[in-house]
Amino acid sequence: MWGMTFETLLTWFLAPIDPERSHAVDFYTAWHGRLKVAAWGILFPVSILITRFMKIRPRQKWPQEHDSHFWFYFHVTVQLFGGAMIAVAVYFMWSSQSAGWMSWLHRTAGWAVVTLYCVQVFG
């Protein structure tokens, strides 16, 4: 593996784990996953980091200047944009007919997390 070219490595990386089974994911399920990963895995953590570490920005004359609201507006904007992405992802999976206990567990946990997000936003 270490002597592979980039193209060979990329082909290997994109190949299915088990070539005997097809891994067909429909459009709505794929975009549900992409949007959830983008919101929960990228946008929200970046928003939290900006909120935590940018209350005092570089080149800000602190303590003379202490009312920089960049972090707050950034946080609110990103949280609302992430919420819109979550709403679209929920819409994509609204009519999902998945069966099985793992699907039920995923759906129950997903609704719990979305409910807690709504409580936080509207609280």
> What is the structural class?
mainly alpha
Major sheet attributes: none
Residues in β-strands, percent: under 5%
Number of strands: 0
State Rg. Answer: 20 Å
Order of helices and strands: HHHH
Overview of the structural elements:
- 67% of the residues lie in helices and 0% in strands.
- It has 123 residues and is mostly helical.
- Helix 2 (27-53) runs antiparallel to helix 3 (70-93).
- The longest helix is centred in the first third of the chain and has 27 residues, at 27-53.
- The protein is flat, with a radius of gyration of 20 Å.
- It starts with 5 loop residues before the first helix and ends with a helix.
- The model has no long low-confidence stretch (mean pLDDT 85).
Gist of the model:
The protein is an all-alpha fold and 123 residues long.
Give the key terms.
mainly alpha, 123 residues, 0% strand, single chain
Give the topology:
Layout: H1 6-14, H2 27-53, H3 70-93, H4 101-122
